[in-house]
Amino acid sequence: MTDPRRIITAVGLAAALSTTMVATAASATTTEALTIRYDVYLGGIHGLDAEFTLRRSAGRYAFESVSQTHGFWSYLFRWESRSMGEGRIEDGRFVPAVHRARSVGGGEPRGLDLLYDAEGNVSSVAIEPKSEETDRVPVPQALIRGAMDATTGLIQALGTMPPGGACGGTIPVYDGRRRFDVRLAPQGTTDLAPNRYSSFAGPASVCRLTFRNVAGGRTPERTAFWRRIDAEGNAGFPTLVYLAPVAPGGEMMPVRVEVDSPFGWAIVHLKGVQAARTTAERP
């Protein structure tokens, strides 16, 4: 079976594209929250559920995600993953403070804790299980500086993407094990036809995500995702993200994701979107 961690990486990255909300307040504090839910189909069968929530308020941001196997696939491979992150927003720049991830399934529980200093650089790394780290190549500190978790990086890169606009840019990512780049390249536009799996149909911008390892990994590399290198030097499996506003004038968000894996295409469908705003008077 396709490693759920790689599929959910694509889902999480795609969900991170969906933020152009602007929190403004004068005499009150306004919190805006956007929750996006996805159904992931593996081999034509509903295999994973994923949910991503982003909150912004008074120069701060926070996100949470939860993913787990579904139905038939859960009998074959029970797996669940949760992650969170938070930080501050300064002049449109997202500066991470903490990122944590936990997953259970397919062996020992896995965990990652990244803490950042005031400049947004990694100051502390904790990984479980430690037994998996003995054969990894250490990432030089100079390459870690300026890198961030993938979700914050994509929020930063595409947070101001206008409706109907094109993606682009390169995100420096450090996940506690590897330092890699996520590259975003526009692939034009298309019309998504109505179907029974998705809550969205209509025109969408297409964005291609590719991954290039900079440092880290194992000796020798045992993960199929990172072993696979194409003619352009990109690692992993081709990933297409379809972006569109789900309401007129609304923010661009992923409405479909396609990941080409050794087991065929994994298709991520938008299940639903919920937006909320709360306002509290300042003392």
State the gist of this model:
The chain is mainly beta and 283 residues long. Helix content is 13%, strand content 53%.
Which sequence of SSEs, written as H and E, runs from N to C?
A: HEEEHEEEEHHEEEHEEE
Rg calc:
18 Å
Which stretches of 5+ consecutive residues score pLDDT under 50? Answer: 15-27
Distance between the termini: 54 Å
Strand content: over 45%
User: Overall mean pLDDT score?
Assistant: 81
Strand tally is 13
Helix content: 10-25%
State the secondary-structure class.
mainly beta
Instruction: Return the domain count.
Output: 1
Characterize the biggest β-sheet. Answer: 13 strands, antiparallel
Account of the 3D structure:
The protein is 13% helix and 53% strand. It is built from five helices and 13 strands. A 13-stranded antiparallel sheet has the order 7-6-5-4-3-2-1-13-12-11-10-9-8. A hairpin with a 5-residue loop joins β6 (110-116) and β7 (122-128).
Give the helix/strand layout.
Elements: H1 4-16, E1 28-42, E2 45-57, E3 60-69, H2 71-76, E4 80-90, E5 93-104, E6 110-116, E7 122-128, H3 141-144, H4 150-158, E8 169-174, E9 178-192, E10 202-216, H5 224-227, E11 235-245, E12 252-261, E13 264-281
Antiparallel strand pairs: 1-2, 1-13, 2-3, 3-4, 4-5, 5-6, 6-7, 8-9, 9-10, 10-11, 11-12, 12-13
